[in-house]
Amino acid sequence: MTLSPEAPQDARTDEHDEVLGYPFEQAPGLQQCPMYAHLRETDPVAKVRMPSGDQAFLLTQYEDVRTALSDTRFSRAATLEPGAPRLAAAPQNFKSLLNMDPPEHTRVRKLVSREFTARRVASLRPRIQEHTDALLDAMAELEPPVDLVPALAFQLPVTVICELLGVPFEDREEFAAWSRVFLATTSVTKEEMLASQIALRDYLAALVAAKRENPGEDLLSALVSIHDEDDDRLQEEELIFLGISLLVAGHETTVNQIANSVVALLTHPAQLERLRKEPELINHAVEELLRLHPPGNEALLRITREDVEVNGVTIPKGSAVLPSLSSANRDRRQFADPDEIDFDRPANPHFAFSHGAHYCIGSGLARAELQIAIGSLIQRFPTLRLAVPAEELRRPEGMLVHGISSLPVAW
């Protein structure tokens, strides 16, 4: 399959039996691999071969992705069934909030949803601002260039999720390393993936035991109390793996999104200058940067519970389906000028936080962190700029999430 823009519009039928290697070759910087744009127009329900060797159907158009994220015929729980197709070489054979289907998913999600309500997030904003200001103060004391990833993008979300869950901050480097392996697809070995899963499981099990002995005013202590009062509401393994889900998802995506957003702004000076002059646009800016540069290309794998027709293609029962969030976010059928940064976009129903039952429970918290971190950074350092050419920035390969490995900045 070529990437020629002149590829015939009816090529989809002829090409549909071709199986593409996945993930695709990574484009430089924040650019999206041109294969996604090509598939949106020629083969929107494309067959791909995942790193595990299993095949999947990759969905690249907005409406198809929305269907896969919201239709119960596309199951997350089925990914745990014996013999089910999988994305990475190592299976993740444990139940968590991320791989449950309703009504079980609804039951567990309700137990934590109160910690992520709009009111709860609003109450956390002063503390997030306090942490941000402290990190920017420390950054200002350093001699530029400074790597923004460890200075701000990593520290802020980790600090917030540690406080919220009740995880010792001094363990951050250790659990962050496990998290990166946990979210890998091809960058580590199968043995490393399995070891990381075991390490995270043991770490959260030990934390649960500690909270049981000495509970605090944190979310993990509250979940332990719920389990101990009525284990029909939350079983022990569910409790442990819910903690893993919240810990990993609670910092990894935001770490990467802060870095992605800053790079996008620093490489679009007109939009950056406008945001500095009109700080009230920060909420719109964050949504637009989430749409254009989300921290992950694809949603979590789904398995079809029955034959499903998508965009004229029959996807057989038991097939793996990868809905591409980043491709859907650039679909011209949904977004005008989809490759442009537009802070005035009247509606922005992007999929950066997924959609449907698995819509990110922590999206409100992530938005607050992004708004505060990015808004405060560009106001505090009005001459902020990249300290290296943009083409030298590197993204980690073989990961479910996508950010910038190192982000040297000066001012």
UniProtKB/TrEMBL annotation:
This protein's name: Cytochrome P450
Family label: Belongs to the cytochrome P450 family.
Listed Pfam families: p450
GO molecular function: heme binding; iron ion binding; monooxygenase activity; oxidoreductase activity, acting on paired donors, with incorporation or reduction of molecular oxygen
Cross-referenced InterPro entries: Cyt_P450, Cyt_P450_B, Cyt_P450_CS, Cyt_P450_sf
Transmembrane helix among keywords: no
Record-linked PROSITE patterns: CYTOCHROME_P450 (PS00086)
Residues annotated as transmembrane: none
Keywords, ordered alphabetically: Heme, Iron, Metal-binding, Monooxygenase, Oxidoreductase
